[in-house]
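Render this sequence as a predicted structure.
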Amino acid sequence: MKLSDFQLVMFDLDGTLVDSALDLHIALNLSLEEAGYPLVSLDDCRLWVGNGAEVLVNRALQQTLDVSGSHFDLHRVLELFYKHYSEINGQHSELYEGTLALLAQLKEAGCFVAIVTNKPEAPARVLIDQKGLVVDMLVGGDTTQERKPNPLPLQHCMAHFGVSEDASVLVGDSINDFQAAHRAGVKVVGVSYGYNHGLPIDARNLDAFVDSLSELS
């Protein structure tokens, strides 16, 4: 699939353009340690990424504690996580192969390029700026009333640019992205890396499936 054939190309952020799992893992363990809870592994953290910080923290606490007999303070750990992540965000994150080249090519072709992520706008903007990602629009997890897999963030993006479903495509790494794209009626490209909660990706439900963004340039 040639992305430059579309008027609007939307990308997920974490796990699609940027490998940010190490930043999230460090911030999560600092928060758990400060609150007196057990630490988690990087591999487990990768499985939990993709549904926002509250879900990430909640999964970590439920994984490490006997929730049937224990009470944990989700809100305290979440507040600590936001604090630590704001200090760490971007320090250990790495762009996936082909990211900058593909974005530059799409801009040169005259496409609108947007990032649609479940990460809140503020930390997403910090990460985007740190990594030099030049896009026309950022839709964060708190930009609209719903997050992916709800189609609203994608619909909001298309309405902003005045682009139809047929002329739009989403590139993502997880079931949240794929479901949002299907519900919004846009084409969807899946990447084989990233964070899909440890689940295999059924490429039959995708319009394209790649191992690297360089395959889309």
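Summary. The longest helix spans residues 21-35. The chain has two domains: 3-19+94-216, 21-88.
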